[in-house]
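Example S7 (structure tokens).
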């Protein structure tokens, strides 16, 4: 049934039934307007978005003292008004501050493509819900790669919009200078369907595809193969460019903003004593960063956007590069309690995603191959700010030209 102002009439008890992948924290039964243009589309929302009657868990189990919100997050209400049906709230890493899907409180979601491998995070449950067929669309957030990493790992498509395109009202803030809402879907078709209702407008065709040659060379062989397949399928002329200088130049200011703003956004939670001690210690690192340091980081990124970006990404071009330089890791490599844990490997998951948050650029990622373990490989397409609709259209065209895979478990974009 459809509640007033998009408020769900019924919420299923936790844990959700029939969720073998641990993708959801709650089943929701909220039907959108029956005559809306998105009628029949089933979606889940990351559990850091407000929903009346339940406080968002934000990846934590200790939320009993949180006050349930009175209004839904803007994006949930918007999708309901458009006719889409909200069917669940999706799992996530604690406070969206981990890229592999690890969750000390709730356990990690299980990757439907391979249970021994990570699902990616922090929008872990959102990606798993789509990959397992529980939803046609999932809302996630992305502050440093939190949509694209799980899309790569789970073999689905994703759209990280231009920063500021979608209203963040009713969403847990992490690092507001970097935060953005976005979507995961089985293919680009669903992204193209919703894009016009999110403020994405077609402008003009792109003139060239710019290959991030150095980033590709620094990646695993299967990643390079996926990029090569995309380039071979492209109808655009291909240019090459060195991107690692720009990517590395963005890292320091992005980490400054991520740590400093996260501490400010989550200070009360950090000081509550309810967080996992390791997570609390990581978040507390931002306490030493003053407002001057954050202002300097924003200015540095603005300067990069007007200097280095001009060289790497001309106005009518699309940059193509891997989502991750590595193959999808085993769960044990990303479990802090495992002897196989690699902090360096965990850090590398977002090596090629952080810069676009710092510069506010739109990104679409599509599955484009398989790695040596038969796990999906994602490829990023990046454009200038505001070119979201054109980027989704190009991604759909490119995905349609890729060789058809024989693995029936992976959706075609």
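Recovered sequence:
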């Amino acid at each position: 049934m459809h509640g007033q102002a998009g408020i769900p009439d019924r919420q299923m008890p936790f844990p959700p039934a029939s969720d073998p992948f641990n993708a959801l924290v709650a089943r929701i039964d909220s039907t959108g307007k029956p005559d809306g243009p998105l009628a029949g589309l089933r979606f889940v929302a990351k559990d850091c978005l407000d929903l009346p009657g339940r406080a968002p868990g934000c990846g934590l189990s200790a939320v009993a003292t949180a006050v349930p919100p009175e209004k839904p997050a803007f994006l949930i209400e918007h999708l309901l008004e458009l006719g889409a049906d909200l069917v669940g709230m999706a799992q996530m890493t604690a406070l969206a501050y981990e890229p592999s899907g690890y969750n000390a409180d709730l356990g990690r979601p299980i990757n439907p493509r391979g249970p021994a491998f990570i699902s990616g995070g922090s929008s872990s449950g959102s990606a798993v819900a789509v990959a397992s067929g529980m939803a046609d669309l999932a809302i996630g957030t992305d502050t440093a790669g939190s949509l694209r990493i799980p899309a790569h790992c789970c073999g689905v498509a994703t759209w990280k919009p231009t920063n500021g395109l979608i209203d963040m009202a009713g969403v847990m803030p992490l690092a507001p200078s970097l935060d953005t809402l976005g979507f995961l879907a089985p293919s680009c078709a669903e992204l193209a369907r919703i894009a016009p209702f999110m403020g994405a407008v077609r402008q003009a065709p792109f003139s060239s595809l710019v290959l991030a040659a150095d980033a590709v060379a620094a990646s695993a062989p299967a990643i390079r193969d996926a990029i090569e397949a995309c380039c071979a399928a492209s109808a655009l002329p291909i240019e090459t460019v060195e991107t690692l200088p720009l990517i590395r130049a963005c890292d320091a200011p992005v980490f400054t903003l991520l740590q400093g703003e996260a501490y400010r956004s989550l200070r009360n939670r950090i000081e509550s004593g309810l967080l996992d001690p390791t997570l609390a210690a990581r978040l507390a690192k931002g306490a030493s960063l003053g407002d001057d340091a954050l202002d300097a980081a924003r200015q540095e990124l603005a300067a990069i956007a007007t200097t280095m970006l001009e060289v790497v990404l001309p106005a009518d071009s699309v940059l193509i590069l891997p989502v991750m330089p590595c193959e999808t890791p085993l769960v044990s490599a990303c479990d802090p309690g495992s002897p196989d844990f690699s902090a360096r490997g965990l850090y590398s998951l977002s090596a090629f995603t952080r810069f676009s948050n710092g510069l506010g650029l739109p990104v679409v990622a599509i599955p484009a191959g398989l790695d040596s373990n038969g796990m999906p490989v994602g490829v990023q397409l990046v454009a200038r700010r505001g070119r979201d609709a054109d980027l989704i259209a190009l991604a759909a065209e490119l995905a349609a030209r890729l060789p058809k895979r024989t693995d029936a478990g992976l959706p075609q974009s």
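Notes on this example. The two ends are 32 Å apart (CA to CA).
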